[in-house]
Design a protein that fits this description.
Strand order of the largest sheet: 1-3-2
Number of helices: 5
Shape: globular
Radius of gyration: 21 Å
Mean pLDDT: 84
Strand content: 15-25%
Distance between the termini: 69 Å
Largest sheet: 3 strands, antiparallel
Structural class: alpha+beta
Number of strands: 5
Amino acid sequence: MHEDYESENDGYLEISNVDKLVNFSRRLIYYNFDDESEKLSDADFFDKVQKIKKEDMPELDKYLPFEEAKSIMKSLIIKRRHKKTKIPKLFMKESDYDEVLVQLNQRMVSNIIRGLVNKGVVDSAFDNERNDFIFWVKDKYDEYDNERPETD
């Protein structure tokens, strides 16, 4: 970070375009979820992230909507004014960007699970002992409660 901006000099990223960073981060999380991505070199993975396929956009927008991602990102952005010129710039701690990526990943997983619950594939309940929600794949016989086949 430039020393004339009031803040620490190390560990900050200057953000020139929030929307581009949000979109890049969404694509990064989306493609990182793909099993095929682990086989790619870092350079090939980042190339894939930069050149998102048009057919992947609807799924990305469904499971990691831009506005949700931007809200997460904006909560950790810091605005600083230059001491002399008073020109504002946006910054984020490097560790906060790591946190953004963790939160985006959690949000995408949550949205995927919610979609599966809405489709009736997964069921959920609150577990008081764990103080958290639990999820399980519905048994194909769940809808017929009393019509389950007998087992020995």
